[in-house]
Fold:
Amino acid sequence: MKPARLTAQLKRQALGLGADLVGVADLAPFSRLKTYPPDLLAPYRRAVSLAVRLPRAIFDDLVDQPTPIYANFYQAANRRLDEIALGVAGFLEDHDYRALPIPASQMIDMTELRGALTHKAVARMAGLGWQGKSLLIITPQYGPRVRLVTVVTDAPLKANRPLANRCGKCDQCRRACPAGAIKGVGTGNRYDSRGQALHFAKCRNLLMQNFAKLPKVEVPICGFCIKACPFTR
Ligand code: B12
Ligand code: SF4
Ligand code: SF4
Structure:
């Protein structure tokens, strides 16, 4: 099958499985990205980025702390994303390609706090959204209130291109962050490191505190940078 037709069919399949957004990234620029294991991407040349949105009302209802409802649907979205990724990998295998789903929310390196592969870098390169001052992926349709997953593959899919950053002079995420973690530094392209955008430990510590102390919030979440973003609203 021709690449354009295969790509169109794959995108239809992903939307049918429950994805709200789907795009394809060329993996060539990722050759120096840190992954677990380090050669994770070697057999692959494309990455499919998939997003599931969370309802706006979940974030409207965050007042001074994350809610049990957010905690529940954070986990439900992760489960749905893992299922969509399995479906997309199955579709590619049925067309005789190799495809590896990367879990939606699995931390591999607990010291550096990294997953096997960063979904945000893939989503940015697949044109789903730009990396905002909060370091989250901001989609034009739903802002940062999307969760992400990735399927890497050797299929010759047609790649999308990154979107331009639309944060401009806005700094609402910085002002809303209860931990003072967001530095408010803008980028036209991408950040060289997480530390350029975020006081990373401040965010992590607040999430761990929420996890430890809030009843029925059994996952490390916060979400005020999501709530504050004008694109969420
Ligand atoms: C570890 C982790 C955390 C840690 C560390 C956060 C971090 N920024 O890395 C902690 C616990 C602090 C955390 C917090 C949160 N997290 Co978190 N987290 C992850 C996890 C599991 C791994 C991230 C990782 O490996 N980062 C590695 C670093 C180096 O990469 P990065 O953050 O993407 O940033 C770099 C790259 O994107 C790179 N880049 C950008 N473009 C390109 C292009 C190329 C070619 C290359 C090479 C690189 C590159 O530039 C950045 C700077 O170097 C991911 C799931 C996953 N596997 O991706 C979820 C994930 C990033 N988290 C997510 C969310 C929503 C949150 C929270 C809002 C918590 C919550 N749900 O309430 C906060 C937000 C914090 C913030 N403002 O960033 C979502 C983000 C969705 C989105 N719209 O962007 C993810 C993707 C989970 C998911 N499945 O959707 N998280
Ligand atoms: S998740 Fe909370 S603490 Fe972390 S950057 Fe966003 S608003 Fe700040
Ligand atoms: S709140 Fe404003 S600065 Fe922050 S990510 Fe959203 S648009 Fe960008």
About this structure: The chain has a mean pLDDT of 96. The first helix runs from residue 3 to 16. Residues 3-228 form one domain.
